[in-house]
Specification:
This protein is an alpha/beta fold. It has helices at 2-14, 36-40, 50-57, 73-84, 111-114, 130-136, 155-172, 176-184, 190-206, 212-216, 218-230, 252-269, and strands at 62-65, 142-146, 233-238, 276-282. The protein has 12 helices and 4 strands. This is AAA-ATPase-like domain-containing protein.
Length: 283
């Protein structure tokens, strides 16, 4: 109990709490689903950017962030993604920011990728750490998964929403499909076979037709292929505990079965510890 309490207190300090990311003004309401970049553009954002430095420099491979509901965990996770995740075009090639991104109609990247670096904004605490920004801003492959919408009383009833949550992460990295297609072409070899197999599973997951056992290894596979393409991966899993909320499942046997399934999924995800640099689980 003491160790859990210490972790909770540490997380509170890291996030500069109290304070909610979505403060309300009279007659106005900011939706909590907004991303960090959207919130930063409003006057309602409470700066917690120093957490980026704390997380990056933390001497721990897997970090558990436990905070009460509505205390900004989701925005904190999205802030890390916005800071760390490298820009990639539709062909799976890295894209480095330039002013041309804002006007080039042929560059197939997202609006957020085209935004200039807001982390040098002097109003953000992280801006004081220019060396860290240079070393890590938009430098890493990131897997970002949210279990916020995963629900169900049993493993079987949970699988559709869990599949959807994981499939969204694969959708985000859809540029890997042409990469895998190119790697799969050529003489038979271990690498071409692996590419064909990964492509097959990638398509199943994006089509939401993957079976329950393959789903367990899906994030592990995504870590592996991103590591092979770009180097060690950073993993961000938001609301990891939502699917096992006891309030969703009255039958304790079913609750245990759900917990066992999710435990297997996470254990497989973190199996190859040298393929990912660091992971954060919030809940």
């Amino acid at each position: 109990m003491a160790s859990w309490l210490s972790l909770l207190v540490g997380c509170l300090l890291l996030l500069n709490l109290p304070g909610n990311d979505c403060e309300k003004a009279k007659g106005q309401d900011i939706e909590e689903e907004n991303t960090f970049l959207d919130l930063h553009a409003t006057k309602f954002y409470v700066d917690k950017s120093s957490f980026i430095r704390d997380f990056v420099l933390m001497d721990t491979k897997i970090v558990l962030l436990t905070l009460p509901p509505k205390w900004g965990k989701t925005v904190a996770v999205d802030m890390l993604r916005a800071f760390l995740e490298l820009n990639v075009d539709e062909n799976g090639e890295r894209v480095y920011w330039s002013p041309d991104m804002l006007t080039d109609p042929n560059l197939k990247i997202s609006r957020h990728q085209a935004m200039p670096n807001i982390f040098v904004d002097p109003n953000l605490k992280i801006s004081r750490h220019r060396t860290l920004i240079t070393a890590h801003y938009k430098r890493h492959p990131v897997i970002h998964v949210s279990f916020h919408d995963v629900q169900g009383d049993t493993v079987e009833s949970m699988l559709p929403s869990l599949t959807e949550a994981i499939a969204r992460a694969f959708d985000h990295h859809r540029y890997m499909q042409p990469v895998l297609s190119r790697d799969a072409v050529g003489p038979d070899s271990v690498s071409s076979y692996n590419a064909r197999y990964s492509l097959h599973i990638f398509e199943q997951i994006r089509n939401r037709t993957v079976d329950r056992e393959t789903l367990k290894t899906s994030l592990y596979m995504l870590v592996e292929i991103l590591n092979r393409k770009f180097g060690t991966v950073w993993i961000l899993i938001d609301a990891y505990d939502h699917p096992i909320d006891i309030g969703q499942t009255q039958d304790l046997a079913e609750a245990d079965a759900k917990m066992d399934y999710l435990r297997d999924l996470l254990q497989k995800t973190f199996k190859l510890r040298w393929h990912f640099h660091k992971a954060l689980l919030s809940g």
